[in-house]
Amino acid sequence: MGKESGSVQIFHKNLCCLMLGKLKNIGKEKNLSSLMANVSVAFLGLVSFMLLTRQLSKELFGEWVLFITLATFVDLLRFGLTRTSSVRLLSGADKENVKVVLGTSFRINLVLLVVLTLACWMLYGLVVAGGFEINNGYLLFLMYYPFLALSNLSWNNAMSLFQAEQNFKRMMFVRLSNVGLFCVFLVINYALLGLGLVEIIWVNIVVNAISGLWCSLKNWDGLLFISQAKRNVQKELINFGKYSMGTLISSSLLKSSDTFIIGMSPILGSAGIAMYAIPLKLTDLLGIPLHSFAMTAYPRMSKKSIQGDIMGTKKIFYSYVGIVTLLFFPVAFAGFVFAEPMVLFLGGNEYKDALPLLTLIFRVFTFYIMLLPIDRFTGVLLDSINKPKLNLYKVLVMTSANIVLNVLAVFVFESLVAVAVGTVLFTVMGIFMGFYYLKREIQIRGRDIFSESVLFLRNLKIHLG
After folding, report:
1. Same-domain status, 141 and 263
2. Using 50, 70 and 90 to split pLDDT, how confident is the model at 207?
3. Are 88 and 130 found together in one domain?
4. pLDDT tens digits, 116-165
5. Are 395 and 434 in contact (CB under 8 A)?
6. Which of 61, 232, 341, 347 could cysteine-pair with 278, CB 3.0–4.6 Å?
7. Cα separation of 391 and 80, whole Å?
8. At a CB cut-off of 8 Å and minimum separation 6, what does 79 contact?
């Protein structure tokens, strides 16, 4: 009896060790690490969003959304010039080359910061002196963005290093240091302080500066390596980056142009921006896994491409498209079914009167969610095989179509639902263009997505362990 009891205990002990080992391996898997990093940041972003909807009026919240959307868009312009190309050069680079690439990219982004600061403040002066009537969100951006741009320079530049190293844990902690602090402030502000929009913007600037200072002290950002910047590396970063920057800007415009154009409408205005932001935020949250998988897919496909292994590059593409699309179907279905309580939970009672409209908009967005994986990964693959120009052409066509559709939706139909429908239409267009380019360049075949996805699932233990 004692022997049997001892055997059972040993069996349980070995089983626990085996399970812990498997969990440890799963935790180290790059896709899951990236996903955890993005989910953690997005959760605090969601909490911040909900707190802001509850402590700002519709008009003020709309101005905040316009300000932060413009800031995010211009950040993509700044860092889009160097990030994708930096990740490509940093992947597998030795310590000395890492310093050269980081120092060169930091110098480029510093020059861009000076140019953008002068442009913003000159435009602000012209608008004020000329007495032009524009949405206050635009004025807030022109006045305060240069301070925000300076405060987030270091940690944004460090993101290239983290992505190239696949160090998503470090990436998560750096992002949490500003998003988390901002969320803590909003809780205190909601409960005790009651500060206004301008004060909230200043706190956002300060918490970004804290993250930037951390990256500078750790030598992750390239600030101390500026003296090691090289002209030939700068040329390489810019030559590749001018296409990836155009792609990132155009990609950002695919969503942010909705906000910009709604903000120009005398009928919809800031209140329209605030209402549209709620279903759009839900869509962004459901799309978090895609961003995580894209971050891990790009270095992997780039490495295979640089090694000349086109077949290996295509296999990674097929697997990612198939598996992520499969994951997105139940997510989109659940979003469609539970759209009303999700919208109400995010927006609060302030938006209860607009609940039927916002629910309909989000249900339209669920179709967009299902199309996102295949559209995103065609773009990632074009960049990976060193065809950023083709990816830029694809996104430029999509952006142009979206802007035209947005103008018609806002100024002709005066409908937020029509704006959402336009999002679905331009995504379908992007999928067709992406496959056209990939078939021409590396003979991508749509039917191989299914077979490679099945093979991936059969070998799932190998991928996780």
Report:
1. no
2. very high
3. yes
4. 999 999 999 998 888 887 878 889 999 999 999 999 998 888 888 887 77
5. no
6. 347
7. 14
8. 109, 156, 157, 159
CB 222 within 8 A of CB 102: yes
Q: Are 269 and 416 in contact (CB under 8 A)?
A: no
Does one domain contain both 314 and 198? no
Specify whether 296 is located in the same domain as 364: yes
Pick the closest to residue 379 from 449, 290, 448, 464 (CA basis).
290
In 3-state terms the chain splits into helix, strand, coil percentages (rounded to 5) of 90, 0, 10
Per-residue pLDDT, averaged over 361-373, amounts to 88
Q: What is the per-residue burial (b if ≥16 Cβ within 10 Å, else e) of 269-278?
A: bbbbbbbbbb
Q: How many domains would you assign to the chain?
A: 2
In the chain, DSSP finds a helix count (H) and a strand count (E) of 19, 0
Q: Please state the pTM of the whole predicted model.
A: 0.72
Residue 51: inside a domain: yes
Contact predicate 179/244, CB 8 Å? no
> Which among 391, 70, 143 has a CA at the least distance from the CA of 251?
391
CA distance 191 to 345: 19
- Statement to judge: residues 261 and 212 lie in one domain: no
Q: How far is CA 99 from CA 95, 158, 219, 405, 461, in A?
A: 6, 12, 9, 45, 37
Q: Any idea which residue has 């868009």 for tokens?
A: 73
- Give the Cα-Cα-Cα angle 42, 46, 50 (nearest 5 degrees): 170
Range of the domain at 444: 253-465
Mean pLDDT highest for which of 49-53, 181-185, 217-221, 421-425? 181-185
| DSSP summary character for residue 191 | I
Is residue 450 domain-resident? yes
For 337-369, give the DSSP string: HTHHHHHHHHH-GGGGGGHHHHHHHHHHHHHHH
Q: Indicate if 258 and 200 belong to the same structural domain.
A: no
Phi, psi dihedrals of residue 21, rounded to the nearest 5°: -65, -40
| CA dist., res. 332 & res. 322, Å (int) | 16
Shared domain check, 182 and 123: yes
**Would you state the structure tokens that stand for residue 383, as one six-digit string?**
């960049």
- Residue 4: per-residue pLDDT: 47
Q: Is the CB of residue 259 less than 8 Å from the CB of residue 65?
A: yes
Give which of 282, 284, 275 is closest to 255, Cα–Cα: 284
